[in-house]
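name: query_chain
kind: protein
chains: 1
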Amino acid sequence: MSADSGDGAALHVADLRAGYGDARVLHGLDLTVGRGEICAVLGPNGAGKTTMLRALSGMVRGRGTARLGDIDLLGRSPDALARLGVAHVPEGRGTFTQLTVAENLRLGAYSRRDRDGIATDLERVHHYFPVLKERLRQPAGSLSGGEQQMLAIGRALMLRPRLLLLDEPSLGLSPKLTRELFGIITSINERERTSVVVVEQNAHLALDVAQRAYVLETGRIVLSGPAEQIRADAQVAGAYLGYRV
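structure:
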């Protein structure tokens, strides 16, 4: 099945199980993300959200089924998955702090040989994140937390990803900068038709930008559906959004 097949789905996950050593964290997740959709994944700390992203990006071994279009994701290395269009921005950003902003961005295109395309994509990143163009020669470690998050996402875009996995992109950012960042993520999604899976503690904001949402607890999906429907669910509202419906 391709990403442009009849149901338009880009990512299909079925019975996904993963963990660390003998400790099982995910207990059979089923989820679907349509081509060009933003999917929000919510849940308390320890629910398995980060493990899910790591399994989809090859950082931990997963069992079950995970397909991006007609590509099997499980059993491949992170490097191989990056080459296939899976870009993972981990919690904590993962920038190379001793390298310059320009060097970090070039690393995002390490597997590519199309110089003209790389140059075009650098301009595209500068369009989304103008501050990075102003900081190209600075060490990444000298950037603010928000700028480092922008750099991490910009570096991921240099892969020309089909699937962008974001783990807590708002962590440590001010509310104003968080809103700005999510506005850029929405713009990337709309312009590039990139499917996005975002794990986020700011449930309000995540549900504002997402079309689809899943709620995890103890390694299992307990709620799923359109983001608007999840927002209106009394259980989600009370547990994650701080109000009653």
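note: Residues 9-91+164-241 form a domain with the Rossmann fold fold (CATH 3.40.50.300).
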